[in-house]
Amino acid sequence: MHPAKSVIYFTTASGAGYGLLAWLGVLGAMGIIPADRTFGIAAFGSAFFFVISGLLSSTGHLGRPERAWRALSQWRSSWLSREGIAAILTFLPTGLYALAWVLLGQNTGLAGIIGLAGAGLALLTVFTTSMIYASLKTIPAWSNGWTSLGYLVMALTSGAWLGVLLLAVLGEPMPPYSLSVLAGLTVLMALIKLLYWRSLAKAPARSTAESATGLARFGTVRLIESPHSEPNYLLKEMGYRIARKHAGKLRFWGLFYAAMAPLILLGVAAGYAIPLAAIMPLAAASFAIGLVLERWLFFAEAKHVVTLYYGNSAV
Asked: What is the pLDDT of residue 67?
């Protein structure tokens, strides 16, 4: 698939925003993070910025972005429609929770219940986003259980990195075991990606040129001449290819920047008593670079079954 920049930004930015909203809802309701006004403004401001900018950027890949609102009417059959509705519904409890946190200094009790509702809806929105891709049986690389699990874990991990970054920069006290949880989530995210790539490598082909054309009884089917003399929409969007050697390098660098480098930096900070405010911006920036590389690969490596009619032997 062609990795559209708008969709890459959407899946990384909105995931981080929703992940942070989920952490704020749960940790605030449990009283682990106090309702500090400065942190509340920075945290909710950052979360809403990433969520809103991500949602807006997702419309940039549409032919007629001004008609995007019409997708909301197809909630019975479309995960894209369900995502839009879930995203809109999430703004109500999270907005009220933000107001209670910032204006009233409350994030427990009734405000905490509202925050937990917002956290649940935030994760539900991430799940519906993942199902837009996981429901596409025509793209085997996405149509598996690892897709939704990966989206949820990456949202929680990126939200945790954003939250810890804000706490460190603002000089706020870290919740107990926050760095250990952050490191554990990062390792879990990397492990899920490795297992996802392993499943892709070991999974048998779902479709072949023979099954797609119905000519299996005649033997091996191969393309003699392309159906089109010039590149068309299908080839540009669905037939994007990346060499295996390049994919391998990008996988390594994606994991290096998203997991290995940030964890090394956190270890150095702990071992040499370096203030988190000095090390967290660099570690979070490294994590963000790795996440973007991973998202780019998620789209670039996916093969659509339509490519069987353009030379691919199996998908």
From this structure: 67
Question: Which value, to the nearest 10 degrees, does the dihedral of the CA atoms of residues 142, 145, 149, 150 take?
Answer: -30
- The torsion angles phi and psi of 314, rounded to 5 degrees, stand at -160, 155
| Separation between Cα atoms, residue 228 and residue 310, nearest integer Å | 9
Classify 109 in phi/psi space as left (phi over 0), alpha (psi -120 to 50) or beta: left
CA dist 254 and 190 (Å) reads 9
Instruction: Check residue 247 and give its pLDDT.
Output: 87
Could you tell me the residue ranges of all domains in the chain?
A: 5-310
The CATH class, in words, for 5-310 is mainly alpha
Predicted pLDDT at 65: 66
pLDDT at 59: 78
The encoded tokens of residue 113 equal: 């219940």
> pTM to 2 decimals?
0.92
- Report pLDDT for 212: 82
Question: What is the per-residue pLDDT for 66?
Answer: 66
Q: Which residues contact 110 (CB under 8 A, 6 or more apart)?
A: none
Alpha helix (H) ranges present in the chain? 5-29, 37-58, 79-103, 110-134, 145-170, 178-202, 209-213, 233-237, 244-255, 261-271, 276-300
**Tens-digit pLDDT profile for residues 291-310:** 999 999 999 888 888 888 77
Please tell me the distance from the alpha carbon of residue 78 to that of residue 63, in angstroms, as a whole number.
18
Token output for 150: 């990966």
- Nearest-angstrom CA–CA distance, 255 and 257: 6
Those residues of the chain that have pLDDT short of 50 are: none
Task: Confirm if 256 and 265 have CB atoms less than 8 A apart.
Answer: no
Burial of 95 (0-12, 13-18, 19+ CB in 10 A): middle
